[in-house]
Amino acid sequence: MKHKLVRKTVRDFSEAELGPIAHEIDRDARFPWQVIEKMRVLNYFGLQIPRKYGGAEVDSISYAITIEELSKVCASIGLCVTVHNSVGAQPIKSFGTEKQKECFLPPMASGERIGAFCLTEANAGSDASGVETNAVEVEDGYIINGTKIFVTNGGICGYALIFATMTTGAGKPFTNVFIVEKEMAGFSVGEIEDLCGMRANPVSSLFLEDCKVPFDNCLGQPGSGIKIALTALDSGRIGIAAQALGIAQGAFEAAIKYSKERQQFKKPISSFQTIQNYLADMATEIDAGRLLLYRACALKDENKPFGTEAAMAKLYCSSVANRTTNLAMQIHGGYGYSKEYDVERYFRDAKVTEIYEGTSEVQRLVISRAVLSQHT
Amino acid sequence: MKDSIKEIWVFGDYRNYFQNRVTLQLLSRATELAKMLQAKVCAVVFGDQVDEWVNEYIAHGADRVLVIDHPDLKNYKIETYVNLMIRLIGKQRPEIILVGATNFGREFAPRIAKRLKTGLSADCVDLDINDEGLLVQTAPSFGGNILAQIITPECKPQMATVRPGTFQEIPHNYERTGEIVRIPMPADLPKERVHLIFSERSPQRSQRIEEAKVVICGGRGMGSKKKFKKLTELGELMNAEIGATRPVVYANWIEADALIGQAGKHIKPKVLFAFGISGAIQHTAAINNAEFIIAVNKNPNAPMMAMADIAIVADANQVCTAMIKELKVRIRG
Amino acid sequence: MMKMLKLVTCIKQVPMVSELPWDPRTGTLKRNLADGMINPACRYALEAALILKNTYGAEITAITMGSDIAEEVLREAFAMGADRGILVSDPKMAGADTLATSLVLSRAVQTACADFDLILCGCHTSDSETAQVGPQMIEELDIPGVTYVDRLELDGRLLRLQRLSDNFIETLEMELPGLVTITTQRQAPRYVPLAGLQDAFTDKDISRLSLEDLDLDPELTGAKGSPTKIINVFSPTAEKDNIIMKGSARKIVQQLFDQFDDKIGGAIGKDIKDYQESQ
Question: What is the pTM of this model?
Fold first, then answer.
């Protein structure tokens, strides 16, 4: 009953507040601050942050449902919320000191500061160890230099988690994570990228030029950067899988509606077997994806390992999103190719779910490693 | 003692007479029902100096009018009116009581029914008498998507509120005569606990859209906020209220109280214009009671078009503009 | 010390029309299959209660009558800010009309919150649309009450109300305790916060009341206690043989006004015959 009500609650909100603007903010690549203000008080930015820091502390299935329902209407905002909550806030929650949590989590939970996760660089991404941004320890903190690219929420972030490489003496280089606040000297935001889909999310580069960060803003033990990244991405995958699922569901529902309305040969096209087969496949795959996703969520809530299951959910849901949006556009025919219909947007939005927060190829790597190690 | 002739009572709701002639409409139907039951029609009037209405009701079919005429009854007072009605019913035992489904009627009738522990159906769109001589009340639910036929087999009186505009009034006949029974205002009524402090007739524009005869509803197909505003101009020309679908309200093209739909208002106009509305069930559930629907949509297959009496396949905005232009010529001419 | 204001809202779970599994040709309706929601007007009543709570401080008791699944609307009311939830549920109550419903709800209010100050109900439900339960509770409880209220404000024990009734804007006053029914005219209900929704399932308990708890004679409730009987249900909607008009906007509009000048002109109260044409 709780999950049903969560779905209904988020659906009511999304349809009311995001539905009317989804097309326009995508077209104009505009971030809808007004709606974000409303979402802040409804706890959308503190989904899994503990109560004592002002969050809603929802369970993972509620979390997935929330992202799914937001993304079904407006994937750009679903993306903003999931990146903020998972890879933005989760590392602080899991690896921060009590002092750091008290300092950084409340403004994140209230949505006053939106989080960004900055791993990807010109020569790093899937390879987390290839980070070229570097940090040097000085008397009262660190000096960071480097450039991060394709940062989701980049243009609007209040806190950016910056992955940087450090070396001490003759030892091996290691990776650390720094919480960089947007006001810090030497931190700047690049131009907003002109992307294929999810255009309302201000994805941008971030520049760090002799950016000075206090000791208190270094997250975790020295050298724990890779571990933080991998842990964060496990949770992140749940969010992206949920997002992909929402996109697929949105496209599917649009296809159902259209196929009942559109008449050819004096019959609705939903009465033709080919269309029916498409719809059956879409429905089955979406349901299968949903079950994979909720299994990963349930494991996470039980504090059991869920990384492989989350990778499977992300791999599968993102590919379902692409197949479903493709078929939905096919069912819409020429109209589907027009920007007048939402399926065109779903089609563009779906693609990146196979790319970010671990490409499908990387998910397969994660899954195959687990499978191979289990069967030795 | 009164003889055993059955009576059908009609509550004389005259407050909003010029906009709402439901009492006369009820008298008309009551005379037909009375024939089937071999009954008489009796109107009940409370108020201050109400002879005008008493005569009007006789001219429109009442055989008898019960009147309580007293300065204290100048304004409608819910508790006092209920108490008076209960006393009259107790003495006279009518077979049927019909009340217009005005705001007051829908507050008044349920309280009467509750006191008498009898049945009441709401906002009926038809009334008939069945073979057993019972009143068959046809009442809408789910915004008119479903009609239910209801009887009250074991309790008397049988009661219904009836939607204004359901029945045709009979033309007045001031030659008609009827018995006028003047009843003194009782002195021992309980004190009214709900006090009317101030009342003013609301300006014509703010008639409730639920009661409007003509409604113009606009959807996303109008194109933009600016274009949507043209519906207001058209509305002024046609004395129509403006309604909107959910996407339009959420896009702030019009205030939220214009929302027609499941979560908004239900309407029942004589003529409904639907401009650029595709016809999602959340919307159409609230317009099923419209008598005549003219839908304008580019998509001939939109569900709204299937519901319409006239389906205009064209751009909603262009048709709206053309209507404004044409009406200006015609209404002047 | 002044006692905390005690508010009661009666909320009904109604089927979402978008979900209604019904057949427009036969008019049959499988109600138990439809997804439920808080009746829209009840949501406005709850919002009015929440505003009073925010302004004056109050305890809100939400009461619903229905099957087990109606627990949902109480949980949602918790999430929005209600403090207590009462589910009145008994198989013997099935098939109740407004007379029986108003009796059960009134008794539930007296049982669960005997010292209530104000009861707020939605002015009508979206399913049965009678708008009768509120006024009938006023009678049952023998308290002052006003229906179709748009605005309300509290001045000590005096409640000042505004409503639009049959084209009159009325300002009314009554002493508490009382009952009001709220329209969907004014303050749009708030969205449900997600943290509240989590708490609604962990921090809050729902009390259940049966007929026995209410000390009610089963003869007076459910279908037995309902004087009205439904003898037939049907759907008036049928596929219409509609007229289709195509062409230029100007031509269509002229054709429309020429062919339907009676219908349209009659409704708008203006003569729209094309005199230039006929002269």
Answer: 0.85
